[in-house]
Backbone:
């Protein structure tokens, strides 16, 4: 295999086989990275121009019934501070967000049984009737087909559920036995079938990840064709079993953002908070590698320090307005413009 031939093929066909993806990752060098980055930016430019979409991220609950080994709000972390936002608090975040120019609200949280279908359905209906020009994205983990359907019928537009890893054995090393790879994958299929714009994704550099596994992730994404794909470096949390593991690399995350943009030119690709935590200008670099979405925090300031998925998370001391203007400034500094727009995916294929 020759790395230049593989890069040519990726650019030409938007697709590689698993061996080629693995080879590309393992043997990447500055020249190839630069080439793929230029191609990714050109494709993003063609589809989305210089617009960067923003999503107002509302972290609604730090309670979680799951015990993912990497996550700071895992059930077993007795040091985690738990909170949940009321309907009124969430609606007031939307209100503030709307005036700050957000047209997408992302409701994210641990898997918390407090948020029943009745409660969420009522909440989504209220958000959609109060802000009919806004999209509602949910990121609330694994639920039943019926639950996803009901929330969709209430008006939810999109759902983010990272697949975490496309490799079954790797999944089992990152999660307790009670959490199932098959169920996660089935949830993703169900969400798509119901009609959501679906986001999958994974952490870069999670413990036990290999280049081969990353290649499997890329093949999975290629086949699944998500509307969105969230990737960010794994970052340790001091009160989890992975506290002594190494952090994921911002450099590899940026490389993979370019590869994913080339693979799926229309995909919505966030430059994540984790990338901004791993590197002080990681989000800017993410956009310059092919990403086109940023997700500033819209949670009430009082709770931000309680939604700590990993150590040193950025934006936990800021107000919503500060995050919004900080990110607009950061995007402007690299020649991009945050837009007031729902930011739907452009027609796939
Ligand atoms: N509970 C929902 C779910 O499972 O999709 C949404 C919240 S969950 C905390 C959001 C994402 O955070 C996960 O999919 C995971 O990839 C990421 N995450 C968790 N712990 C992390 C860590 N230590 N470093 C980087 N990302 C992490
Ligand atoms: Fe929150 Fe910069 S985006 S402070």
Residues:
């Amino acid at each position: 295999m020759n790395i230049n031939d593989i890069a040519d093929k990726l650019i030409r066909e938007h697709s590689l086989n698993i061996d080629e993806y693995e080879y590309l990752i393992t043997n990447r060098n500055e020249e190839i990275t630069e080439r793929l980055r230029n191609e990714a930016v050109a494709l993003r430019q063609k589809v989305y121009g210089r617009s960067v979409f923003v999503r107002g991220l509302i972290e609604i609950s730090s309670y979680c019934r799951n015990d993912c080994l990497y996550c700071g709000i895992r059930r077993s972390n007795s040091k985690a501070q738990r909170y949940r936002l009321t309907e009124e608090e969430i609606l007031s975040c939307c209100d503030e967000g709307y005036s700050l120019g957000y047209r997408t609200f992302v409701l994210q949280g641990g898997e918390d049984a407090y948020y029943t279908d009745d409660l969420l359905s009522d909440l989504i209906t209220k958000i959609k009737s109060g802000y009919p020009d806004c999209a509602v994205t949910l990121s609330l983990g694994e639920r039943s087909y019926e639950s996803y359907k009901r929330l969709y019928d209430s008006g939810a537009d999109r759902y983010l559920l990272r697949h975490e890893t496309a490799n079954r054995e790797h999944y089992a090393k990152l999660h307790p036995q009670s959490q199932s790879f098959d169920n996660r994958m089935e949830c993703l299929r169900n969400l798509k079938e119901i009609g959501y714009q679906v986001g999958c994704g994974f952490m870069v550099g999670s413990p036990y990840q290999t280049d081969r596994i990353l290649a499997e992730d890329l093949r999975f994404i290629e086949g699944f064709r998500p509307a969105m794909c969230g990737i960010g470096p794994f970052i340790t949390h001091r009160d989890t079993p992975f506290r002594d593991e190494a952090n994921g690399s911002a450099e590899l995350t940026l490389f993979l953002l370019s590869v994913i943009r080339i693979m799926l030119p229309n995909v919505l690709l966030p430059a994540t908070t984790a990338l901004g935590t791993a590197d002080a200008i990681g989000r800017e670099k993410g956009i310059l590698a092919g990403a086109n979405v940023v997700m500033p925090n819209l949670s009430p300031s009082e709770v931000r320090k309680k939604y700590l998925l990993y150590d040193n998370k950025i934006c936990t001391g800021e107000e919503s307005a500060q995050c919004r203007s900080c990110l607009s400034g950061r995007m402007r500094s690299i020649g991009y413009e945050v837009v007031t727009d729902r930011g739907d995916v452009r027609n796939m294929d």
Notes: The chain has a mean pLDDT of 97.
